[in-house]
Amino acid sequence: MKTRNWRGPNYFGSWPGLKYSARTTHPPSDIQYGIILTNERYELSQVRPKLTVLKSRDNILFPSVALSTFPPRVLATLASRRSGIGQPDVTIDMLHDDVLLEIFDFYRKLASWNDGMWNWQELLHVCRRWRYIILASSRRLDLQIECDRSTPTWDLLDVWPPFPISLSCYPWRGEGTRGNHNIFAALKRRNRISQIDFSDITCMEVGYFATAMDEPFPVLTDLRLGTLKTDRDRKPAVTAELPNSFLGGSAPRLQLFVLQGIAFPALTSFVLSASHFRHLHLLDIPHAGYIPPEAMLTFLLPLHSLRGLTIGFSSPKSRPLQMSLPPLTHALLPSLTDFQFIGVDEYLVDFIARIDTPMLDSFRMTFFTDVIPHHSQIHKFIDRTDRLKAFIQAEVCLCSWEVQAIFKSPANPGLDIICDTSYCPVLSIVRLFEQFWPIPSGVEQLELCEEAWDVRDLLVDQEDLWLQLLIPFVSVKSLYVSKGLVPFVASVLENLTGESVTGVLPILDNLFLEGFGSSGLGEETIRSFVSMRQLSGHPVIVRRWERKSVPGSSSGGSPFR
User: Fold this and answer.
1) H/E run at residue 208
2) Distance between CA atoms of residues 171 and 503, nearest Å
């Protein structure tokens, strides 16, 4: 019997010497596993996913623990034994089928959150009982067969029961276009395909796959299509286009649709054919596929279950020919909670002037410039959206190519504004705050960070702009500054004199500096400012900031990932 040391994360506390052994045969035979722990041997069923056993002071391993206490990738608590008091061994085999099913379902959710798909096939090899429970609960456990370019599709699909198929093409797996015959073979089982993820495929492949998908896919719920970026601006070399016959012109069960860098002339009728849409993300819309605001709203209105919406254009050329007058009444998108926009403000203003979104709690805007002429209309939309209120936290991130400001409230993700910068990131963020005043005035906690090392060269000799950046934040109590920005912020604060000592950040209590106390970032960095605030009766405490994340990391990312 071959024995290997446990290589996974240490979910077993401080117990040393934990090993597992396995004697494997091909299915349908069972796989027998053993765990050796503190010189005690327990015969247990075990699978590849990481397992957890919980420890107490008298070496009890509890079989029933709240599922919410399990760490990521934990399957279940496997065994229990109290030594020395005459109790018999307790194994996982004593758990009821319903309990095992709950454990399997919990693991499915964890694996899905981390990897997108869960490998239920491995659990079938543990024992006949597990195999029976899993296969008898295919809907509850969302059993799907995952296929990609490397999958021997014809052989695989004939082995398993007719479970739904999840089909994917990922260029980062290094498959290239080799194995596309497996994709085409899977597409012939259109009545079983529930998920398709063709991210970053070539424009030529868009045409090939679309031709093979010219009939309805009746059980398809998730569809992601995106073209491969090739040039320096991350835009496709040519524009791909879906034919009007794509999916037979309808997708009755589609709930998620991501389309990136691909024109789709029949998009309006296609979306209207699916009344169950929950997420619609149109990214890098080519100028050839431009959709006017009023046309966009036409096919969104019937989508009463729509929760997530992205409208993203690839070029500033995509804009309305003329601004429309605001309508007397607003169209209602009752379930929308997350809205992302990439483009010019004329389009955004024209679109949001037509809608009401009472449930919206996450609004992300990305502009091609830091000058937003119609910002007042965006304010009006924010003002009539109840959940976009009370922003008490803000994160500011400076890059050499763009700036980002995230405003958060205690209960909601909030407002995220990104704009391209031409030559001076500080000037861009100052302009942004001026245009979106008075939102910064209510912020109580502010973080200032830089994301790229080369941005620091663009921040020197900008002391007046740094001062203008801080002035709008009249309610800030805690200021966090990343290590790369400490010299610039500290210089501004050190040079404050007279009334400006308390006029800038007037109620600041805590100043957190990343790297404070290390070489070059001692108390002398900010000594004069701290002394003057102390004398003014508004003391500030300087602390070290242990930064754990980058601003914007919690904000919505690409729907492809």
Assistant:
1) helix 203-212
2) 54
The pLDDT value recorded for residue 229 is 64
Q: Which residues contact 119 (CB under 8 A, 6 or more apart)?
A: 48, 111
Which pLDDT band holds residue 58 (cuts at 50, 70, 90)? very low
Distances (CA, A) of 440 to 392, 415, 465, 481: 9, 11, 16, 17
Over residues 420-465, the pLDDT tens digits come to 887 788 999 999 999 998 999 999 999 999 886 666 666 777 788 9
The structure's pTM equals 0.77
Which residue in 133, 124, 60, 131 sits closest to 102, CA to CA? 133
SS3 366: strand
Which residues lie across from 393 on neighbouring strands?
Answer: 408, 445
User: Can you give the length of the chain in residues?
Assistant: 561
Contacts for 250 with CB less than 8 Å, ≥ 6 apart: 216, 270, 273, 274
Cis? peptide before 28, omega within 30° of 0: yes
pLDDT above 80 for 113: no
Closest CA to 473 of 430, 515, 512: 430
| Averaged pLDDT for residues 35-41 | 29
Burial class (CB in 10 A: 0-12, 13-18, 19+), 85: exposed
Q: Give tens-digit pLDDT for 326-384.
A: 776 788 999 999 999 999 999 999 999 999 999 999 999 999 998 888 888 899 899 88
Alpha carbons 120 and 507: distance in angstroms, whole number: 56
| Contact in structure between 54 and 61 (CB atoms under 8 Å) | yes
Whether 532 has a pLDDT exceeding 50, the answer reads yes
How far apart are alpha carbons 142 and 423 in whole angstroms? 51
The pair phi, psi for residue 164, each rounded to 5°, is -60, 155
Residue 480: pLDDT over 90: yes
**220: pLDDT strictly greater than 50:** yes
Beta strands in 206-275 (DSSP E): 222-227, 240-241, 256-260, 262-263
Q: How far apart are CA 135 and CA 220, in angstroms?
A: 22
Amino acid present at 427: L
In this prediction, residue 551 carries a pLDDT of: 45
Nearest to 134 by CA among 33, 25, 27, 7: 27
Tell me the helix, strand and coil percentages in the chain, rounded to 5: 30, 20, 50
Separation between Cα atoms, residue 49 and residue 19, nearest integer Å: 15
Burial environment of residue 56 by CB neighbours within 10 A (0 to 12, 13 to 18, 19 or more): exposed
User: Tokens for 11?
Assistant: 């979910």
Displacement of CA 391 from its chain's centroid (Å): 21
Higher pLDDT, 437 or 6: 437
Predicted pLDDT of residue 519 = 63
Query: Contact at 8 Å (CB) between 362 and 337?
Result: yes
Q: Distance between CA 183 and CA 167 in Å, rounded?
A: 7
Crossing angle of helices 375-383 and 345-352, in 10° steps, is 30
Do the Cβ atoms of 301 and 324 come closer than 8 Å?
no
Mean pLDDT of 493-512: 91
Compute the distance between CA of residue 449 and CA of residue 547 in angstroms, rounded to an integer: 10
Beta-bridge partner residues of 36: 19, 41
